[in-house]
Design goal:
single chain, about 425 residues, alpha+beta, Elongation Factor Tu (Ef-tu), domain 3, 2 domains, six-stranded antiparallel sheet, 6 strands
Length: about 425
């Protein structure tokens, strides 16, 4: 049991970070964002991201050597997250709540459709990232989603007669659900290959630029004079709670858990919103909400305590390398990394070559100088007389993060230490 807890420590920390970010988002949706109801949504979203970027921008300069090595796939993922998760999703959910506040449709329509987010995220995580989780995970995920609905509507009850799928608020909510769900998946692709601090900064910077263009085209930017001192105070509060701070914490968590687990753990949002409503406004929970709360907590516990990180496996083509490993006494097989979506690091793996299983070490990430693009290299204890055209690799366990070394001798000592696990 002690060994299992040690293996799961980073995963548990990541899960708790996702839940903390969800708590901060619940503060926004319940107590802060409604105060901006009279302002254009585009202006509000632009300002919260511009101010957030000012706070996070130093991380871009600190990690520039890594950022400039990102490949086209990672930049496309950053663009997707910034446009869908940052700009479109935030505008759509803001517009959805503003439309509901107009009184022509109930909040039930917005909440019901926005909770489609886990469905989109789970599907995309499976088909884009190749996440294959145990069947019990999907069972508890379904329990968590159902419990979240009962928690949201457990006091007033949910009458489907209240749902207006043809109202503009419904459209906004559905688009927001897809935008946020997909940005969880593509966000995972980014943090697999970049630190969480820079990921948050890049997202806020690009989103601020997109929203600036949007605010200029719609004329929302020219209504900035409507903002009094109280609104600027709320914007600063957003930056250090549900905005930049929450996204900083969220990407810390997303780097350590799967996208599938993250989207379920984000359901801590309705739980925390209801609890905050009880603590601050003294609104008593109904028996249905109390039962839903207990079920949701049980689902979270089952997901957090189980090691849900899937073991990756893939087929990769062998390509030519520089021969640096051989010069250090540890010849490696260089692999094509085009379709690999896993965290950078060193892994103990099993590799199938010409029908035989070999034990080996897989290094994925920047090389020791951190001044070159990431490489995918396989080291086998047994030498191969002839290299195959492609190899099948299956993860056994993750050993460590990618390290930076001062010189070749230091790197050689670390390689010798890592190779002991193959003995």
């Amino acid at each position: 049991m002690q060994k299992l807890l040690k293996l799961d420590k980073q995963w548990v920390l990541g899960a708790l970070a996702i839940m903390l970010a969800a708590l901060l988002w619940s503060l926004d949706g319940v107590f802060i964002r409604p105060k901006f109801y009279v302002l254009p949504a585009g202006l509000v979203v632009f300002l919260e991201h511009a101010l957030g970027f000012i706070v996070l921008s130093p991380f871009i300069f600190l990690s520039w050597s890594k950022i400039k090595l990102l490949k086209r796939k990672e930049w496309l993922a950053i663009g997707w997250v910034s446009f869908f998760g940052g700009a479109l999703g935030t505008v759509m959910i803001t517009e959805a709540f503003f439309a509901a506040m107009g009184g022509t449709v109930t909040f039930a329509t917005v909440v019901l459709l926005q909770k489609l987010q886990p469905v989109f995220a789970l599907l995309l995580a499976r088909f884009i990232l190749g996440e294959k989780l145990h069947r019990s995970f999907y069972g508890w995920a379904a329990v968590a989603v159902v419990a979240a609905y009962f928690l949201a509507f457990g006091k007033t009850g949910l009458s489907f007669g209240e749902i207006d799928l043809f109202h503009s608020a419904a459209f906004y909510a559905a688009v927001a659900a897809f935008a946020f769900g997909s940005s969880t998946v593509f966000g995972k692709r980014i943090v697999n290959h970049l630190d969480f601090k820079s990921t948050a900064a890049l997202r806020f910077g690009l989103t601020a630029l997109l929203m600036l263009i949007y605010a200029l085209l719609t004329g929302d930017l020219f209504k900035i004079a409507l903002l009094g001192a109280n609104y600027w105070g709320y914007l600063v509060l957003i930056v250090f709670t549900s905005g930049a701070a929450a996204m900083f914490i969220y990407y810390y968590g997303l780097k350590r858990v799967t996208a599938s687990a993250s989207t379920i753990l984000e359901l801590f949002w309705p739980f925390s919103a209801v609890i905050l409503d009880y603590v601050i406004n003294h609104n008593v929970l109904s028996p249905v909400q109390i039962a839903a709360t207990l079920v949701l907590l049980l689902a979270f516990l089952k997901i957090v305590l189980a090691e849900q990180t899937p073991r990756f496996e893939f087929m990769a083509k062998v390509r030519d390398g520089s021969g640096r490993g051989a010069k250090l006494g540890f010849p490696t097989i260089n692999l094509d990394q085009a379709d690999i979506d896993v965290n950078y690091g060193l892994y103990l793996v099993e590799s199938q070559i010409n029908g035989k299983i070999y034990k080996g070490l897989l290094h994925f990430g920047q090389k020791e100088t951190f001044n070159e693009p990431a490489s995918l290299e396989l080291y086998l204890k047994e030498r191969l007389a002839v290299l195959p055209d492609q190899v099948f690799v299956r993860e056994v366990k993750r050993i460590r993060e990618v390290k930076r070394f001062a010189n070749a001798e230091e790197l050689k000592r670390q390689m010798a230490e890592d190779a002991k696990i193959l003995e």
